[in-house]
Amino acid sequence: MVNGHVATFEQIIKDGDVIEHLSHRHEPPVTHKNIDIIYQDDDIVVINKPSGIPVHPAGRYRHNSITHIMMAEMACNRLDRLTSGLMILARNVRIADEMRKKMYDRRILKEYICKVHGQPLTGRTHQLRVHLQWLGNPILNDPIYANMKIWGSDMGKKGSFMLNDDELISSLTKMGKTETASWYMDEIEEAEKRRESRLGELLTGEVCNICQAPLYSDPSQNDLKIYLHAWKYKSDDNS
């Protein structure tokens, strides 16, 4: 529409014209939990990000993201969608650039809390989920890296996979579409019964009557979180 009216193919756009368009989107639901503010001053806001909400628009997520929910603030650090914990938002461009540079230069110490299966002997400070799996200690309810049906009983420890690369890609691609996520906790103690009670996001076989996009069922609460929480941040200048 141009200036509140449906535009024609012949219409010539002039300076001052207001152009509008409608965008039809299908967006996955996220948790309804409040976003708690842990600290704020004139420069930054520190929040406790709930599990299940992505930090920024990605894939099918847009409005259901932290940066859209808290539109006036600028994200300084990123957390995985399923990860909860502290997240820093800047209130001005100067602080945003300063914080991003500190993050990029690895001048911020990050501490996480996670629940895993096993006794890890070592680890690294980034890509926690992948490295924990490599050690054989995946986060217990990680739907990707603690999935015995995909990685086998050794959980992909030291790169030991029961499937080849093509089979791995095929199996992971089906998750959330034709198969629900499965993790270590599903394989023990009445696993099947619990799994059936929490069946989550799947393609329903139906399509939207407006755009013909495939429709998904809603994820369960368990599908919106993993046992990984960003606990502390400390910069090299003790700020």
Automatic annotation (TrEMBL):
Q: What is this protein called?
A: Pseudouridine synthase RsuA/RluA-like domain-containing protein
Alphabetical list of InterPro entries matching this protein = PsdUridine_synth_cat_dom_sf, PsdUridine_synth_RluA-like_CS, PsdUridine_synth_RsuA/RluA, RluA_PseudoU_synthase
Instruction: Write out the GO biological process terms.
Output: enzyme-directed rRNA pseudouridine synthesis
Q: Which GO terms describe its molecular function?
A: pseudouridine synthase activity; RNA binding
The chain positions of domain Pseudouridine synthase RsuA/RluA-like read 43-117
Q: Which Gene3D superfamilies match?
A: Pseudouridine synthase
Q: Which SUPFAM superfamilies does the protein's record reference?
A: Pseudouridine synthase (SSF55120)
State the organism of origin: Pneumocystis jirovecii (Human pneumocystis pneumonia agent)
